[in-house]
Amino acid sequence: MFSLNRLMGMPENASEHGYTIDHMLEFCHWFMLRWRSAGRFSLSTPFAFRAGRSPKADYYGVRTKASTHIEFMVVLIDVLLLIGFACLFGTSGCCISRWAMRSG
Q1: Could you give the CA distance from residue 40 to residue 50 in angstroms, rounded to a whole number?
Q2: How confident is the model at residue 39 (pLDDT cuts 50, 70, 90)?
Q3: What is the C-alpha separation between 97 and 87, in angstroms, rounded?
Q4: Which helix (H) or strand (E) holds 89?
Q5: In this structure, how many other beta carbons lie within 10 angstroms of the beta carbon of residue 25?
Q6: Do the beta carbons of residue 81 and residue 89 sit within 8 Å?
Q7: Contact 4, 30 (CB under 8 A)
Q8: Which of 36, 49, 59, 76 has the fewest CB atoms within 10 Å, i.e. the most exposed one?
Q9: Stretch 51-76: mean pLDDT, rounded?
Q10: How many Å apart are CA 23 and CA 13, to the nearest integer?
Q11: Is the full-model pTM beyond 0.85?
């Protein structure tokens, strides 16, 4: 399996929780690479889509309400997921607190 940590020459884990730190480092490095490529894209976009090569801009944009409805549904699903996770894994006793149900 490809690993950025091995590619950068990171040493092997010497502690019990070293793999979690390595996972976090690799995750951060993947995001850094992603944002670097996004930066190159955003710098090259004005030159690639300049007015000389494109006919004319559409100043009216979307004329339907579909995007508003889709955005509302995405927000609703996000809220339901957050409430669901809070009920399942929260300690405040929202709905079904897993911590309260454990024995010991």
Answers
A1: 16
A2: confident
A3: 6
A4: helix 66-89
A5: 14
A6: no
A7: yes
A8: 59
A9: 82
A10: 11
A11: no
- Percent of the chain scored above 90 by pLDDT? 10
Q: Token match 């309400």: residue?
A: 65
Distance, in Å, from the CA atom of 17 to the CA atom of 14, rounded to the nearest integer, reads 9
CA 35 to CA 40: how far, in whole Å?
9
How many residues are there in the chain?
104
Distance CA 84, CA 90 (A): 9
Which amino acid appears at position 25 of this protein?
L
Cα–Cα nearest to 84, from 98, 71, 73, 102: 98
Type of residue found at 13: N
pLDDT at 93 over 80: no
| Amino acid sitting at position 2 | F
User: So what's the pLDDT on residue 72?
Assistant: 94
DSSP state of 9: T
Which amino acid, 67? Answer: S
Query: Is 39 strand, coil or helix?
Result: helix
